[in-house]
Each structure stands twice: as C-alpha cells, then as structure tokens.
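RECORD TYPE: inverse folding
INPUT: structure tokens
STRUCTURE:
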C-alpha cells in the first residue's frame, strides 16, 4: 500500500529571521517573566534542562491538537484490505502520521471510519487518507503556532520554575488562548487556500 502523501500547504514565507527551538524556549521563559535565557538545550542551566524535558511535549500537544493545513498530507487513492470483522475494509495508519484527519472517496466526500488497533475501518473499498505530520523545526511553523507552542511550554514550566497556583493557572489560560488564536488563523488560511483536510473539519462541525 503506497502511503506517500501529497497536498501539504507550503510553510509560511520566511521574514528573514529564523526561529529555532532555543528561541521558542526563550520566548516561553519570557512569557513567565523569567530574566534568564538559554543558549542551548544542553547549556548546563536549570532552565535548559527543564526546557529540554518539556519542549517535545509542548510541540506534540499543539501540533496534535488541530489538523494544521501546513502539516496536512493526503495519500493517493488506496484499496482497502479485508477488515478483521469481515464486514468492512481496513486501511493502515500512515506510519509518519501525527494525527489522522479523515478518509475520503474518489469524489472527495468524507468517509466515516473507526480507528481500531491501529487500523482505519470503513465501508468504502477505496479511499484516500488525510493526515498531519510532526515537524520539529519551529521555522516551518506559522508565527501563531510558534506562539502557541511557546505558551504551552510556558504553562508546563510554570510549576517547575517555582510559580504558585495562580501563576500556573494564568499560564495555562494564556496557552489555551494562544492555541485558539492559532487554530482560527489556520482555519482561515485553509479555507482560503483549499488544502486537503478542510472538508473533514467542516464535516465535524
């Protein structure tokens, strides 16, 4: 089964300033009002050690929270194999998928499916699989996604960095707002450009 995907929206155009993981970490520290910055994830500081621990979790939390258009791929039309229940067809989850967005038929219409034991089960004998990828390069993320990852990281750092309950709650609220803003911007961009995945978001309402 060929799971090579197509259709991802191009990364945002560069403004000439590269965003690195270190920049995301320092942005998160700044959101907490922390005066110190880090120069590397292994620079020996307590801040770097905590950022190194929580940054991957923050990235996966944000990138897995929405069918981001800039991460979306769609497989070619695939033939379903026999499903374990003997009544439906099964499709493999693309091995590199962070999130499966949906299935579609030849007409581009959504196909209902169940996710069971790593397989996508559907009534359709043929379907395309739309999914999103992980991407650990912050320079490929739109600015609002960069902010959302930094805010999520700040929320995860707030307690370990000595924040009290109110500061932790405030950081979590800020992260939630940043994520909503990023999702809204991506939905607008997706609707404008018409990339794979938007019809599934519309079908879910």
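DESIGNED SEQUENCE:
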């Amino acid at each position: 089964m060929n799971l090579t995907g197509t259709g991802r929206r191009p990364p945002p155009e560069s403004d000439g300033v590269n965003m690195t993981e270190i920049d995301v970490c320092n942005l998160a520290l700044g959101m907490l009002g922390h005066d110190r910055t880090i120069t590397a994830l292994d620079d020996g500081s307590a801040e770097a050690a905590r950022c190194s621990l929580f940054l991957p979790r923050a990235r996966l939390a944000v990138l897995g929270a929405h069918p981001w258009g800039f991460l979306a791929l769609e497989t070619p039309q695939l033939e379903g194999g026999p499903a374990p229940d003997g009544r439906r067809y099964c499709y493999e989850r693309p091995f590199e998928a962070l999130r499966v967005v949906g299935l579609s038929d030849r007409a581009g219409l959504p196909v209902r499916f169940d996710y069971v034991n790593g397989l996508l089960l559907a009534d359709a004998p043929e379907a395309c699989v739309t999914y999103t990828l992980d991407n650990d390069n912050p320079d490929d993320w739109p600015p609002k996604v960069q902010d959302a990852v930094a805010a999520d990281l700040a929320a995860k750092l707030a307690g370990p960095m000595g924040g009290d309950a109110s500061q932790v709650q405030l950081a979590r609220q800020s992260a939630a707002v940043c994520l909503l803003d990023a999702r809204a911007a991506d939905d607008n961009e997706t609707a404008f450009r018409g990339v794979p995945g938007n019809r599934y978001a519309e079908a879910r309402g």
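NOTES: The chain has two domains: 21-69+136-204, 73-133.
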